[in-house]
Amino acid sequence: MEEIVNKLREDGKTIATMESCTGGYIVNAITNIPGASYVLKYSAITYANEFKIKMGVNEEIIDKYSVYSQEVADQMSLKITEFANSDYGIGITGKLLRKDQNNDYGLDNEVFISIYDKEHNKYIKSKVKVIYDRREENKELVLKEVIYLLNKILRIK
């Protein structure tokens, strides 16, 4: 993450996050790096659908695809980018091997990742299958995938 924060800073770029199942794990990794305040614009943890919607996620997309979908992760990354006026936005939704009685859709071991690149108006997407019993280990899997994607986007070797 240190290389990512440094590259964003070097390039004069900013980032924002909207996380659900990872509960701030990604933004925590960013803020653990000195100089993160130069690149991090905003972060939201939106466990409840109500707050995803308040942050701009289209309720019709949640209803059509379920809150546990790539489409909702894309909305999250786009809307946090717009809200924070950042260059990149990260959206994460899914389940970490846990049933959700309020949203009984999708697999219990899938996490959807979306990074929105405002300059190129495109989404970089991924899906992670979580495999561990401990939530923190599954969050670490998701973080590793986010780091991989950001390295690819920022062309860090």
* CATH architecture call: Alpha-Beta Complex
Question: H/E order of the elements?
Answer: HEHEHHHEEEH
| Poorly predicted parts | none
CATH topology, which one? Answer: Maf protein
Shape: globular
List the helices and strands and how they pair.
Layout: H1 2-11, E1 15-19, H2 25-31, E2 40-45, H3 49-54, H4 59-65, H5 70-84, E3 88-94, E4 110-117, E5 122-129, H6 135-154
Parallel strand pairs: 1-2, 1-3
Antiparallel strand pairs: 3-4, 4-5
Report on this model:
- The protein has a five-stranded mixed β-sheet with strand order 2-1-3-4-5.
- The protein is built from six helices and five strands; from the N terminus they run αβαβαααβββα.
- Helix 1 packs parallel to helix 6.
- The model has no long low-confidence stretch (mean pLDDT 94).
- It is globular and about 45 Å long.
- With 157 residues, it is an alpha/beta fold.
- It has a single domain, classed as CinA-like (Maf protein), CATH 3.90.950.20.
